[in-house]
């Protein structure tokens, strides 16, 4: 495996992505993580990430030279290179007058290892302030650009390399090939880390950790918790109990369909709990979105708590926490600020004295999907749009009633089904319907109507952090609008949301 030491660059996660794409396992740790943490399973290579600081800043993260005792290949990227050079010889880095951004042609002086097979003139992406002015004696230049005499260096007789550009960004043409040269040819990784090998290793680890104890897992109907439950079930069979709660805020037929898939297709030991009355009672009279969220979260904890009240033998709580939830890129605030443990069912583990099991906490979302495929989870499940924990509770704007929730469920179902029918489901990142708290006048037959309006929202996005409204075909929107107004009694108007995020958000509440 490869250890990535994080010096705070916004691109650190990208380095991990690129290595994973090359089927090499890697982990990101803060630059100041103690070396002894890795002594039991030493890495085959170390990458020092970039970072926003100058080595001359007072609070600049400093490379711990102990890491060189591992005696494995090292690659410093941008600040990683500068911190390396600065640590060896303090006058090697020059404070920049002006920063260098953007593309440059790489002129290679040594094609023997890091740049094996890379063409001269290959485009690389620079983004740095300081640069190397004078190399430590033990190093030599292996590439330059028109403006930078030192674009890449190597140690004269050890496998230690540094690049001033960012091989991890897509704008660096041969970035993946350069990283591949480092991790496969130089560090000797085999590149056989796949979903299948992940499952094998993880099953062993879960068995070892859990022993004969019991594990409980809250299912949401989403990909992450489903993959986690299936994986744990493979490992420990019926020592696992899953809980799937109907909070009365799910999509049409979702509770029944998902429960059935869990039981019949994935053979998970799952207890379905219909708590919809409790949720809706607790939400009665509440219209503030944040208050709704809080009530839904707390009610979930109560229901979960009650469900296992008499099952004292449960020792672990399994969660579908993902890697992006765990790493915090700005690591030089100190190790304590680096890792935020993101609790899907906030407060539960502490309250119930449960230890956490988070088997996919080192994976990115698409890797979790691949693991799910490998585990035989149906494709229709794997590719599902995200669905928020508070569900329809934040899509019926204002106060909730069963009647309004039912109207929204019907409209939403028509929209989502139509997306599948027209092969548009996977063209959008998320799609939803919102019931607006306004009524408007319409005419149906010869009658005046005074009914609710529904807003449709579909977005394209990579990660939900930013999003654009999806440019769905007019004919498609016309058909969906027509069907909703004709089939959903109580809705006489449909609008399409054409706002991007930011400044709008994806959900309306
Ligand atoms: P926003 O509305 O913030 O949504 O643009 C971004 C993504 O997060 C989902 N979302 C939530 N998911 N609990 C969740 O589990 C929540 O309270 C919540 N609020 C929003 C939203 O559906 C979208 O995918």
TrEMBL record:
Residues that coordinate or bind ATP: 220-226
Q: Which stretches make up the GMPS ATP-PPase domain? A: 193-384
| Example GO molecular function | GMP synthase activity
- List the catalytic activities from the record: XMP + L-glutamine + ATP + H2O = GMP + L-glutamate + AMP + diphosphate + 2 H(+)
Record: active site: 78, 166, 168
Q: Which UniProt keywords apply?
A: ATP-binding, Glutamine amidotransferase, GMP biosynthesis, Ligase, Nucleotide-binding, Purine biosynthesis
Q: Which domain of life is it from?
A: Bacteria
NCBIfam families, alphabetized:
guaA_Cterm, guaA_Nterm, PRK00074.1
Q: What is this protein called?
A: GMP synthase [glutamine-hydrolyzing]
- State the organism named in the record: Rhodohalobacter barkolensis
UniProt lists the gene as guaA
């Amino acid at each position: 495996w490869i250890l990535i030491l994080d010096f705070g660059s916004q691109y650190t996660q990208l380095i991990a992505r690129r290595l994973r794409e090359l089927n090499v396992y890697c982990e990101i740790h803060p630059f100041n993580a103690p070396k002894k943490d890795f002594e039991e399973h030493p890495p085959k290579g170390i990458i020092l990430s970039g970072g926003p600081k100058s080595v001359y800043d007072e609070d600049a993260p400093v490379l711990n030279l102990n890491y060189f005792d591992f005696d494995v290949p090292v690659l410093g990227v941008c600040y990683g290179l500068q911190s390396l050079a600065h640590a060896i010889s303090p006058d090697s880095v020059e404070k920049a007058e002006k920063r260098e951004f953007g593309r440059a042609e790489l002129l290679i002086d040594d094609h023997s290892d890091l740049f094996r097979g890379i063409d001269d003139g290959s485009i690389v992406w620079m983004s740095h302030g300081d640069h190397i002015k004078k190399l430590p004696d033990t190093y030599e230049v292996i590439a330059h650009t028109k403006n930078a005499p030192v674009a890449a260096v190597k140690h004269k007789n050890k496998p230690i390399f540094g690049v001033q550009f960012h091989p991890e960004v897509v704008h660096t043409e041969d970035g993946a090939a350069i990283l591949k040269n480092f991790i496969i040819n130089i560090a000797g990784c085999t590149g056989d880390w796949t979903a299948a090998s992940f499952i094998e290793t993880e099953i062993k680890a879960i068995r070892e950790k859990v022993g004969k104890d019991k594990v409980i897992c809250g299912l949401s109907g989403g990909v992450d918790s489903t993959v986690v439950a299936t994986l744990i079930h493979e490992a420990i069979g019926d020592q696992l109990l899953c809980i799937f709660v109907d909070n009365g805020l799910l999509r049409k037929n979702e509770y029944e369909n998902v429960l059935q898939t869990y039981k019949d297709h994935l053979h998970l030991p799952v207890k379905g709990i219909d708590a919809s009355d409790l949720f809706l009672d607790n939400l009665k009279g509440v219209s503030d979105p944040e208050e709704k969220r809080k009530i839904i979260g707390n009610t979930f904890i109560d229901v979960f708590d009650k469900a296992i009240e008499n099952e004292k033998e449960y020792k672990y709580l399994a969660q579908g926490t993902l890697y992006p939830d765990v790493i915090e890129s700005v690591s030089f605030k100190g190790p304590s600020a680096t890792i935020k443990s993101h609790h899907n069912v906030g407060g539960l583990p502490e309250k119930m004295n449960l230890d956490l099991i988070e088997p996919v906490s080192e994976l990115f979302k698409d890797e979790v999907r691949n693991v799910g495929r490998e585990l035989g989870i149906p494709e229709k499940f794997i590719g599902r749009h995200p669905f928020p924990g508070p569900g329809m509770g934040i899509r019926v704007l204002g106060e909730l009633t069963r009647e309004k929730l039912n109207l929204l469920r019907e409209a939403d179902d028509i929209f989502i089904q139509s997306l599948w029918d027209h092969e548009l489901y996977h063209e959008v990142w998320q799609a939803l319907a919102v019931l607006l708290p306004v009524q408007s006048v319409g005419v149906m037959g010869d009658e005046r109507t005074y009914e609710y309006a529904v807003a449709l929202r579909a977005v394209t996005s990579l990660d939900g952090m930013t999003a654009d409204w999806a440019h769905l075909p007019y004919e498609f929107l016309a058909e969906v609008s027509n069907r909703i107004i004709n089939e959903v009694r109580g809705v006489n108007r449909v609008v399409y949301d054409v706002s991007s995020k930011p400044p709008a958000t994806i959900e309306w509440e």
